[in-house]
Amino acid sequence: MVLLKAEDYRRMPWKNGGGETTEIAVVPQGAGLADFDWRVSMAKVASDGPFSHFPGIDRTLAILDGNGLELAFGNANRVFLDADTDPLPFPADIAVDARLSNGLVTDLNVMTRRGAVVHRVSRFEIDGTTERQAVGSPTLVLCHSGTLAVETGGVGVNLSALDCAQIEASPETSIRLSGKARCFVIDIVYE
């Protein structure tokens, strides 16, 4: 298990130049926007506009903070996301326009290379202790708010808001989450 501290995350410009992203983790390590297998990041969205286009990439978006964001997929489908809606998976190589509901939002963005890697993002409210089985390798646990202890295989780390634990364990390994926190569990699976 590796502890990824919020203050150590790498900051970089969006692919379309419209803002800045905070990279939590990427594989291979140090990969750029064109050659990652998977990537987990956060971004502040301060204005309406199109999402960056990533050929061959699948993405999941969740709102961490702010009043929400409406996504328009092409000319037809519109979806509203806020901090209480489930994470939304969609292809990153289709046209998507975003419109802020009422001010800045911060989002969580998970991307994987289609045909090589798949992912699943789940949000949990922890109040006490719960256990879940690892599905991916790796499995990442991002503490959105509160504090969270993460334990597996006799190893543990303590997470504060926006810290992340990256767990390199075989699927079906038990992960214990303890504390009072809102968190996201991100399972990465190589095909």
Description:
There is one protein chain. The protein is mainly β and about 190 residues long. It folds into 2 domains: about 10-115, Jelly Rolls (Sandwich), CATH 2.60.120.10; about 115-190, Jelly Rolls (Sandwich), CATH 2.60.120. It has strands spanning about 1-5, 10-15, 20-25, 40-45, 50, 55-65, 70-75, 75-80, 90, 95-100, 105-115, 115-135, 140-150, 155-160, 165, 175-190. β2 (about 10-15) and β3 (about 20-25) form a beta hairpin. The two termini are about 20 Å apart.
Please specify the SSE layout and strand pairing.
Layout: E1 2-4, E2 10-13, E3 20-27, E4 38-45, E5 49-50, E6 57-65, E7 69-73, E8 77-81, E9 88-91, E10 96-100, E11 105-113, E12 117-133, E13 139-152, E14 155-159, E15 164-167, E16 174-190
Antiparallel strand pairs: 1-15, 2-3, 3-4, 4-11, 5-10, 6-9, 6-11, 7-8, 7-10, 12-16, 13-14, 13-15, 13-16
- Integer tally of domains: 2
Radius of gyration: 16 Å
Q: What percent of the residues sit in helical stretches (DSSP H or I)?
A: under 10%
CATH class of the largest domain: Mainly Beta
**Through-space gap between termini:** 22 Å
Say which CATH homologous superfamily of the largest domain is assigned.
Answer: Jelly Rolls
What's the total helix number?
0
Strand content: over 45%
Q: Main beta sheet: strand number and arrangement?
A: 6 strands, antiparallel
Give the CA-based shape: globular
How many β-strand runs? 16
The CATH topology assignment of the largest domain is Jelly Rolls
Q: Low-confidence runs (pLDDT<50, min 5 residues)?
A: none
CATH architectural type of the largest domain: Sandwich
InterPro entries: RmlC-like_jellyroll (IPR014710), RmlC_Cupin_sf (IPR011051), Uncharacterised_HutD/Ves (IPR010282)
Protein name: HutD family protein
